[in-house]
Fold:
Amino acid sequence: MQSPTTSGQFAQDAAVGRQGDLIISSILRGGVLLSVVVILVGIAGVYISLPRAALPATFPDTLLAVLSGSLQGNPLAIIMLGLLILLATPLARVTVSIAAFAIERDRLYIIITSIVLTILLFGIFGVGAWLGQPEPIIQHATPSFAFLLIASVAAGFIGALVGLGGGVFIVPILTLMFHTGFPTAIGASIVSIIATSSGAAAAFVRDGLTNLRLGMFLEIATTLGAICGTLLSTVLGSGVLSIVFGLVLLGSVIPLVMRLGEELPTRVVNHKWAERLRLSASYPDRRTRQLVPYNVAHVAGGFGMMCGAGMVSGLLGAGSGVFKVLAMDTAMRLPMKVSTSTSNFMIGVTAAASAGIFFQRGDIDPTIAAPVALGVLLGAMIGAKVLVRMPNAWVRKLFIPVIVLVAVSMLAHGAVRL
Structure:
């Protein structure tokens, strides 16, 4: 591990090569802002229409129904339109990334990002159209808007700090406390994952914490894994898989505890793939006012773990951010801040690979997903501001109990489904 550069070079070095980063950050912020505005317009329409007429008994679950309903002023259709804009933000980010790398004349990453986009489109319009057949809508209690908003702010805040999607907390809240159907809870989880990713990643990319090239390269593995996991979910039960993944997570706590006080990885040797793919980078540490360079180890192992992370996402409807952070921190030996920020950057694309299926099956209920989206976005933005000023060791100390919580949740989920 190289030593940090002198603080006098901080502003000058941090500004090098930032044009593409700023373009991507702007797209993420723009998608988030537009989706929030549209959702708020729909929510306002709900409260305006309540005294005069009852809302429709069902919500639109096709693109045509959403567009036509929005033009007719249906509040639920308008809310769903805002959610679809949010779900489409990762797709727009990948598309614009190709242009950003073109500006930098980086042919290798134009190709890599184009591969990611192709896989993503295949997952949404190919596998999604095949598996996303509408299912009967199960009636469930609708949680309090205010309670869901508050819970989602907390979920987004923690999710941004440790690189996870808010669905880790949203699913248990909905299923255990409000007895919401599991598919509907997973639909809200997908929304929260993409909201966390879009809200936090915009800030992380702008601040130079995210390793864009590494994220793009690993997204090939996660999107392929997500599609494979979605296909496997049609023939495999999730009970045994949840238990297996829960046990793996508990076992992964051991190496993290052994490096509990580590601020920066030491003696990390660049993997040969890292050199060829130019994955080594640096990040500006606001706490120390230094530019911190780092190497990337065991790229092949990290890529394999990312395939598994994507499969978890497709099988269980989770962003699998915990597996992504573990792969980058434990296998590839990145600084913890870089691991969590790059995970936030990636989880939205992984979730988007299966989001089309949940939408087409009618599993995204706007009355639940809307407060989740707004709350998680707010929490993620606050968390992103806090993370840039936290020591890496503190992030790891926060990450460990979250891993244990996720592992216990997966074990409980598996036990119920056996």
About this structure: The chain is about 70% helix and 0% strand. The radius of gyration is 20 Å. The chain has one domain: 15-417.
